[in-house]
TrEMBL record:
GO terms for biological process: phosphorelay signal transduction system. Keywords: DNA-binding, Phosphoprotein, Transcription, Transcription regulation, Two-component regulatory system. Coiled coil: none annotated. This is DNA-binding response regulator. The modification 4-aspartylphosphate is found at D59. InterPro entries: Bact_response_regulator, CheY-like_superfamily, Sig_transdc_resp-reg_receiver. It holds the Pfam family Response_reg. Residues 10-126 form the Response regulatory domain. One of its GO terms (molecular function) is DNA binding. It comes from the Bacteria.
C-alpha cells in the first residue's frame, strides 16, 4: 500500500466572543489541528468556501445571522453536506438542542465547556465523516445508490481495504 499524505484536520470556529475564539484556538492548535476563525455568520460563509473546513464549531447567538440559520445554509450546499457542525453555545435549553438537530447540526455542547470533552466530540465526528466519505466514494465508483446501504455497515478499515482493491482493479 502506498504512503498517503495526511493533512491536519481544519476546524473553523465561528463565534463573536474573542475569549472563546482564543481559548478554543489555542487548545486545538496544541492538539495538532489547523484552525480558522470567523467572528460573524457572514465571515463564516466566506471561510467555508475559502478554507473548506473539515469540521465547524458554531455559536448560536451571533449578531445579524444566528448559528441555526447558518447551519442550514452550509448543510444545504451539497459540497458541505458531510461537513460536521458542532454547536458550541450558551443556549442550554431543550428547544435549542432540538433546533440544533433539526437544522443539521451533528453535536451540541454548551458553554462553559470542558476542552477534553470538546476534543472527544471532534474526534468522533471526524471518524464518522471519514467513514461516510469512504462509503460515498465507493458507491460512486461502483455506480450504486445510497439506498443499498450495505457499505455503511462496514467499519473504516474494511472500507479502506475495499476502496484500495477497487482502485487497483480500475487501473488494470
Amino acid at each position: 500500500m502506498s504512503a498517503k499524505k495526511i493533512d491536519r484536520p481544519r476546524i473553523l470556529i465561528v463565534d463573536d466572543d474573542e475569549d472563546i475564539l482564543d481559548i478554543t484556538q489555542t487548545f486545538l492548535e496544541s492538539r495538532g489541528y489547523e484552525v480558522v476563525l470567523a467572528r460573524s455568520g457572514e465571515q463564516a460563509l466566506k471561510e467555508v468556501e475559502r478554507s473548506r473546513p473539515t469540521l465547524i464549531l458554531l455559536d448560536v447567538m451571533m449578531p445579524k445571522m444566528d448559528g441555526f440559520w447558518l447551519c442550514r445554509v452550509i448543510k444545504s450546499d451539497p459540497r458541505h453536506r458531510l461537513t460536521p457542525i458542532i454547536f458550541l453555545t450558551a443556549k442550554d435549553d431543550a428547544q435549542s438542542r432540538i433546533e440544533g438537530q433539526k437544522c443539521g447540526g451533528d453535536d451540541y455542547l454548551t458553554k462553559p465547556f470542558d476542552v477534553d470533552s470538546l476534543e472527544v466530540r471532534i474526534k468522533a465526528q471526524l471518524k464518522k465523516v471519514s467513514k461516510l466519505e469512504l462509503v460515498d466514494k465507493i458507491e460512486r465508483l461502483l455506480g450504486m445508490s445510497e439506498s443499498q446501504g450495505f457499505l455503511a455497515k462496514l467499519d473504516y478499515d474494511e472500507l479502506s481495504i475495499l476502496l484500495d482493491h477497487i482502485q487497483e482493479r480500475l487501473k488494470q
